[in-house]
């Protein structure tokens, strides 16, 4: 399933790397529910969030500068950072 | 000639160079930093209020210090001789490591299998996440800005600097350890090691091969 990482730039303790925001990838696997570090970093409690591993083609992240476009990066992204494509 | 100087004024100098020509490490005579003072205050309060004993704290430090890449090497070696264990590890690496007897605490672990088509390498671009509860402390370079930033941009160049040249047709998978999971690479078994026992094989598995910046090697 294709997803886009939201291109949001809020302040705070964000575990979504800047270089992946706005990029499109494929869901590799769903891992389960975890505490949201954006809240726990400030001792706030909220609902747990689903954590998802997303696979990105190097070409889709770095464009023509990619070393080899078909190599991939995989990262864990909380579901509230994903939007459908 | 740093190892051959004869200019000592006296035998017990703590400045300049040691008799073997190396600089002395400075004594830590500076004031405690804010966080050092905070750590001592918190530790002493926990002991004073009876939540923990000094012996328990020391035992935990010893437990952390005793973890080393040799633990991961035993896990990898077992996957080379036991296909059922390998399947269990790929399905749930944390549970399989615990079943093997390793106390890895609450760590969530994913095993990444290298094949003829795929090479995996692990990085944490945001900080220095590392499977410490299995492999011990990460190497210093793993925490460097150069490794953390370059591995997601030019992994093949980074790997070649570690002495690892990958064929063009092999896919590189870079795993950015961004959140709650930790990763161990399962390197492919070298042909030259076929037929060895599990214990002998563990000596082939290097720390770097479990991060993905190296391959297993015959023990020196």
Describe the structure.
The complex is a heterodimer of chains A (85) and B (220). Chain A is 11% helix and 40% strand. By secondary structure, chain A is mainly beta. In chain A, strands 4-3-2-1-5 form a five-stranded antiparallel beta sheet. Chain A is globular and about 40 Å long. Chain B is α/β, with parallel strands linked by helices. Helix content of chain B is 40%, strand content 11%. Chain B is built from ten helices and four strands; from the N terminus they run αααααββαααββαα. In chain B, helix 3 packs across helix 4, helix 4 packs across helix 5 and helix 7 (145-153) packs across helix 8. Chain B starts with 33 loop residues before the first helix and ends in a 9-residue tail after the last helix. Residues 1-9 of chain B have low confidence and may be disordered. Classes of the chains: A mainly beta (85), B alpha/beta (220). Chains A and B meet through strand 3 and strand 4 of A and helix 8 and strand 3 of B.
The CA-CA distance between the termini of chain A, in Å, is: 9 Å
Helical percentage of chain A: 10-25%
Structural class of chain A: mainly beta
pLDDT below 50 for ≥5 consecutive residues: which ranges of chain A? none
Number of strands of chain A: 5
SSE order of chain B in H/E notation?
A: HHHHHEEHHHEEHH
Domain Nitrile hydratase beta subunit (chain A): 2-84
InterPro entries (chain A): CN_hydtase_beta_dom_C, Elect_transpt_acc-like_dom_sf
Protein name (chain A): Nitrile hydratase beta subunit domain-containing protein
In short:
The complex is a heterodimer of chains A (85) and B (220). Chain A has helices at residues 37-40, 58-62, and strands at 2-5, 24-34, 49-57, 72-78, 82-84. With 85 residues, chain A is mainly beta.
């Amino acid at each position: 399933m294709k997803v886009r990482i939201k291109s949001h730039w809020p302040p705070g303790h964000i575990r979504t790397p800047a270089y992946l925001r706005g990029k499109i990838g494929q869901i590799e696997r769903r891992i389960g529910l975890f505490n949201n570090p954006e809240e726990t970093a400030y001792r706030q409690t909220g609902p747990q969030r689903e954590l998802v591993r997303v696979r990105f083609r190097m070409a889709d992240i770095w464009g023509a500068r990619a070393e080899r476009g078909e190599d991939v990066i995989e990262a864990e992204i909380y579901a509230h950072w994903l939007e459908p494509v | 000639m740093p190892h051959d100087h004869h200019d000592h004024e006296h035998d017990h100098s703590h400045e300049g160079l040691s008799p073997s020509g190396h600089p002395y490490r400075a004594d830590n005579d500076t004031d405690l930093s804010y966080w050092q003072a905070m750590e001592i205050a918190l530790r002493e309060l926990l002991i004073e209020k009876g939540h923990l004993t000094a012996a328990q704290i020391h035992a935990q430090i010893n437990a952390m210090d005793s973890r080393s890449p040799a633990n991961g090497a035993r896990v990898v070696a077992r996957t080379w001789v036991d296909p059922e264990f390998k399947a269990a590890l790929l399905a749930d690496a944390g549970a399989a490591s615990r079943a093997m007897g390793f106390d890895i605490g609450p760590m969530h672990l994913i095993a990444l299998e290298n094949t003829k088509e795929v090479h995996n390498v692990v990085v944490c671009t945001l900080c220095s996440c590392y499977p410490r509860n299995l492999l011990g402390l990460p190497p210093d370079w793993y925490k460097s800005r150069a490794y953390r930033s370059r591995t997601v941009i030019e992994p093949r160049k980074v790997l070649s600097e570690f002495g690892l040249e990958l064929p063009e047709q092999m896919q590189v998978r870079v795993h950015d350890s961004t959140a709650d999971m930790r990763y161990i690479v399962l390197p492919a078994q070298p042909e030259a090691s076929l037929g060895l026992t599990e214990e002998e094989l563990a000596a082939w598995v290097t720390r770097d091969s479990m991060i993905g910046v190296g391959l297993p090697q015959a023990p020196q």
